[in-house]
Amino acid sequence: MNGPLVAGLAVAGLVIGWFLRGVILWYAVPAGAAPARACPHCGDQILAAGRLPRPAVSRPGRLPPPAVARSGRLPQPAVSPSGRCPACRARFGPPPLAVELVTAVLFGALAARVHPALVLAAACWLAGCAVALAWIDAAVQRLPDALTAPAYAGTVIFLLLAAAAGGHWHDLLRAVLGGLALAVAYLALVVISRSAVGLGDAKLAASLGTLTAWPGWPTLIAGAFAGFLLGAIYGAGLLVSRRAHRGQHIPFGPFMIAGAFAALLASSAAGS
Questions:
Q1: Statement to judge: residues 97 and 26 lie in one domain
Q2: 246 domain-assigned
Q3: Looking at the structure, do residues 99 and 192 belong to the same domain, yes or no?
Q4: CA-CA distances (angstroms) from residue 75 to 49, 50, 59?
Q5: pTM of the predicted structure, to 2 decimals
Q6: Coil, helix or strand for 32?
Q7: pLDDT in tens, 47-102
Q8: 101-112 pLDDT, tens per residue?
Q9: Is residue 203 included in any domain, yes or no?
């Protein structure tokens, strides 16, 4: 295990997790709604992480935005890792440091188990997208195209570069076929039972299937099975505790993601 690489990617995960907190804030909205740009408590504008606020008044005679008019302050940058609004200090979104720590742990674990470097890059790219998608799905039960599309594109591009660098074209072919196969399987579930999974799950399955099929078909199968198993255990727990009723939709994306990355990290071929 490369200790410096693990530590370095874990630190990078903390920083990227802070950025993802802003992404989650933007996209944790109902389907069809515009990205959230303001604190739900005070209305002050909150920008996505890593982006500088625009001037409140850019032209003479132009009125400032309503949030600035109410507060008398310029828009603040993104939500801090504490999960509080910079203006009114109200807490919303994921728990304090949760996104940052989950991303750091996942990046560090991938660094310890996955190589070569370009395959690790593909895994980290998908992991970053997946962390945001998991929280968004848990909050509003949707997986936005704005994240599922880049997740798939980035994963395929990095694996394509890995295949070109190492001559692993058979691994790339298996990965692409695995992603398509898992996406088709989820699409079939959408047709059979729309309450079980949605189109967003099928789009996410393309990315997860592509990454987990790179080490081999057993990893893909194990990841898919683990996702369904985790979802079933969670659903059964809700039924037993009477917190949900039979047939109620639950966000399945987090379980798909957890199952896929657990299988990838457990695979003996992950470092091939």
A1: yes
A2: yes
A3: no
A4: 13, 14, 17
A5: 0.83
A6: coil
A7: 544 443 343 334 444 444 444 444 444 334 455 666 667 677 767 778 888 999 99
A8: 999 999 999 999
A9: yes
